[in-house]
Amino acid sequence: MIIAHRGASGYTPENTFAAFDKAIELGADYLELDVQLAKDEEVVVIHDAKVDRTSNGKGHIHHFTLKELQKLEAGSWFHEDFYGERIPTLTQVLQRYGGKIGMLIEVKYPSLYPTIAEKLAKLLTEEMYHNQTIIVQSFDFQFLKQFHQHAPSIPLGLLVKYSIKGITNNQLKEWSSLVSYINPNKALVTKTLVKKIHYRNMKTFPYTARDRKGMEKLIHNRVDGIITDFPDLTKKDPSIESSP
Predict the structure, then answer these.
(1) In the chain, helix, strand, coil percent, each to 5?
(2) Calpha distance 159→163 (Å, rounded)
(3) Per-residue tens of pLDDT for the chain, all 244 residues
């Protein structure tokens, strides 16, 4: 599986319709996107806790209403060709891409948003989204437990930061009681780790591959999917596609 990191963010401004459209054009299997809550508790698609880096605004996401957020320009920071892109809501993304591509939804900074588990679960379990392929992921295992109480049918992924200690068998045993995916920093991935994840009946989508060499290594280690800024990277080299 090829998972487009914040959309095709190597080519377009991340977490925008331009990035998601490009990911579909390049044949990605999933969109990876980030969600947070606006001041009026609307679920919006943006990575950072502040709008500063990826828009012409300044300040924390939760200090803006949805109406205020959607007035911001969110494309020209990447390139002038993308002037006019906006910060989308998750509802807009689901409506626009439902049935076209899977979605790997990362909840950012859940501790900032006490109601986000309930809000997101309600949104994703509404009738209109039942047939979409959706995975919810986070670095916060406790948040995933909380979300699962509200939406037990939605599969979960645990993101794992790089640590020199790696991932232990005890951790995998604990995590496997809740999640279906272990999505580690790519530097943690070995063939042995992938075997251990598969032994626990989980899958793994490591993050974030940005070059062909990195992809080759992950494919060699038999991962189930790759989170990448460049969804077309494997298609440029047949030797990668045919790697065992």
Answers:
(1) 35, 20, 45
(2) 12
(3) 999 999 999 999 999 999 999 999 999 999 999 999 999 999 999 999 999 999 999 999 999 999 999 999 999 999 999 999 999 999 999 999 988 999 999 999 999 999 999 999 999 988 556 667 999 999 999 999 999 999 999 999 999 999 988 999 999 999 999 999 999 999 999 999 999 999 999 999 999 999 999 999 999 999 999 999 999 987 655 444 444 3
Q: Tell me, yes or no, if 150 is annotated catalytic.
A: no
Domains of the chain: 2-241 (3.20.20.190)
Rounded Cα distance, 169 and 33, in Å: 29
Q: Are 185 and 209 in contact (CB under 8 A)?
A: no
Of the residues 5, 79, 130, 198, only one is catalytic, namely 5
Helix or strand holding residue 107 (H, E):
strand 102-107
Quick check: 82 and 115 in contact, CB under 8 A? no
Residues 47, 148, 198, 220: which is the catalytic one?
A: 47
Residues 6+ apart with CB under 8 A from 76: 56, 82, 83, 84, 85
62 assigned to active site: no
